[in-house]
Amino acid sequence: MARPIDNPLPPLPASGVYAFGKRLLDVAAALLLIAATAPLVVLFLPWFMTDLEARIKTGELVGRGGRPLRLQTLAFPSWLGYVLGRSLRPLEHLPRLLALVDGRLTLVGPRPVAAEELDKFGGLQHPRFGAIPGLVCLWWLRQRSNIDYDTEADADLEYLETRSLGQDIAILGRTLIAVAYGTGAGSCKAGHVISGIRLVNLSMDNLLDAIVSAIDRKVRTRVAFVNPDCVNIAVRDDKYRRALGRFDWICADGIGMKIAGSLLGQPVRQNLNGTDLFPRLCAALSKSGHSLYLLGARPGVAEEAAQWALARHPGLRIAGTRSGYFSSMEVDGVLAGIKASGADILLVAMGAPRQEIWLERNLEATGAIVGMGVGGLFDFYSGRVPRAPMWLREIGGEWLYRLVQEPGRMWRRYLVGNWIFMYRIFVEKFSGANLKRPAK
Question: What's the CA gap between 224 and 248, in Å, rounded?
Answer without folding.
Answer: 8
